[in-house]
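Subject: for your reference before the review

Hello V.,

The reviewers asked for a structural picture of the protein, and I figured it would be easier to keep everything in one thread rather than splitting it across files. Below is the amino acid sequence we used in the manuscript, unchanged from the supplementary table.
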Amino acid sequence: MPHLARIDLYPIKSLEGITVEKATVLATGALAHDHEYAFFDSQGGVVNGKRNARIHGLRSQICNHFQTLTLQAGETDPQSFYIEEDRNILETWLSHFYA
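And here is what came back from the structure prediction:
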């Protein structure tokens, strides 16, 4: 008999996932908050490990009901962003990371 052992969501494409106790299934069949966001390069392409291996150097944590993103690159200090409110600051931080 099949059983569900765990639910992992990946709120931002290509970053670390989070394990949740429950998830909402949307009318489309997708899970709420799964792949809700993605990073795009200057040509409009999705940034992922296949196109840019540097993304594997980012450690991430999503908190505060999917509102806060903390990123750490290597040994640098972690930086926290409110995903919606700090979008421009986050874009600048990522631009410097990928430079």
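For the response letter, the relevant points are probably these. Residues 7-98 form one domain. The mean pLDDT is 92.

Happy to draft the paragraph if you're swamped.

O.
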